[in-house]
Amino acid sequence: MGLLVIEFLKIEKLTSLCLPIYNIGIPHFQRFATHTTNRFGFPTLKLSRFHLEVKNSAYVKEMRMKPVLVDAETLRNLFAGLVEDTFQVELGVADPSLTDYLSNLLVRFVRCDAIYRIRNATGQRLYEVAEMLLEAEEREERPQHEIHRHVGDFTLFWAGVFPEALKRLQGAERKDHLLDYCQQGKRAYYLASTCKEEPFRSQSELLRRLSEEFELCSFGLNRVRNEWEKLPRQAGASPERN
């Protein structure tokens, strides 16, 4: 039957996720997901320990069902396998530190509050790269480099995993309209790599490689997405077991 719900440990309340972003293992899921969107127009799920609900969907009653619960470690292992196979086998990139970073990025960004975790001085979430860069200029060194690394992660995620979202993220009415996500991501990772404090100092080589090979990582993550999008079809084609 496949995975119906991705459950994170110690999550009690409903949590907004940015899927189908990750429509993993849910047979015929896309026809449901297109009926609800978040503030940016991306399909969104409501997730709890005991049921899956697509808010404002005509299919909400049909989709409310008892799930197969999967913890964070299982999700991490799934992404790690997909990333390692894509980068090592398909692209010939045998760098465990790089593939570990990318698989952890996918796990972290399952949650919208991780994607948009940067806040300004008044506590408001920042949703655009331009806003994050301005906030970084007002921070001291370590918090500044934390924002730079996040900008690298943010731009790599959208440019690599969901490039079709860039048209909306960089719409004419938005502050990111004239920004090049690839160039900003490369610059952000480079700036993060120059920090002499931990944990950036021990990750400086990795962050520098993310900067230098941003396009390759972006391409590879898009290939990873292609692989996980096959999982719902594979799960739907598998006979159910009692």
Description of the structure:
The chain contains twelve helices and five strands. By secondary structure, it is mostly helical. A three-stranded antiparallel β-sheet has the order 2-3-4. It has a two-stranded parallel ribbon with strand order 1-5. It starts with a strand and ends in a 5-residue tail after the last helix.
Which labels suit this protein?
51% helix; mainly alpha; two-stranded parallel sheet; 12 helices
Beta strands, count: 5
- Across the major sheet, the strand order is 2-3-4
Output the structural class.
mainly alpha
Low-confidence stretches: 1-69
Question: What is the overall number of helices?
Answer: 12
Distance between the first and last residues' Cα: 10 Å
Q: Nearest-angstrom radius of gyration?
A: 18 Å
Order of helices and strands: EEHEEHEHHHHHHHHHH
What is the approximate shape?
A: globular
Can you give the mean pLDDT?
76
Most strands sheet: 3 strands, antiparallel
Layout: helices, strands, pairs:
Elements: E1 5-6, E2 15-17, H1 30-33, E3 45-47, E4 52-53, H2 60-63, E5 69-70, H3 72-90, H4 96-108, H5 112-115, H6 129-137, H7 141-161, H8 166-169, H9 181-193, H10 204-212, H11 214-228, H12 230-237
Parallel strand pairs: 1-5
Antiparallel strand pairs: 2-3, 3-4
